[in-house]
Design a protein that fits this description.
- The structure is a single chain.
- Helix content is 91%, strand content 0%.
- It has 2 helices and no strands.
- It is rod-shaped, with a radius of gyration of 45 Å.
């Protein structure tokens, strides 16, 4: 192989490599291209996602407030129950004392 044939073969190999690279670039560009419809669809989806996140945050805030209210209500109800139980206990003790006192005053035979 002389010098001219070597240069010609090298040029052909480089040209084929260039064509393969260009074809690969064209394929990648063709499959990754985003159209205007895709962009508008992505904008719409991002807006819906943003609205959904805001709705979720509002729901979480509402649930936390509601949980705090119910916890407060439960605490108050438990305190009222404890007070009622103490009052009932005192009333029973007083009733027992009155029964014992009445039984002590009544004659033994009746």
């Amino acid at each position: 192989m002389n010098r001219t044939e070597f240069i010609l073969m090298t040029a052909i190999v480089l040209f084929v490599a260039f064509l393969l690279g260009w074809f690969a670039y064209w394929l990648v560009h063709r499959f990754t291209r985003i159209g205007q419809n895709d962009l508008s669809e992505m904008d719409r989806m991002s807006q819906e996602l943003h609205e959904a996140e805001e709705t979720r945050d509002q729901a979480i805030t509402y649930l936390q407030q509601r949980e705090a209210e119910l916890t407060n209500q439960l605490t108050q109800t438990e305190a009222e129950l404890a007070a009622a139980m103490d009052g009932l206990r005192d009333a029973r003790r007083e009733a027992e004392e009155l029964r014992a006192y009445i039984e002590h005053l009544e004659p033994s035979g009746t």
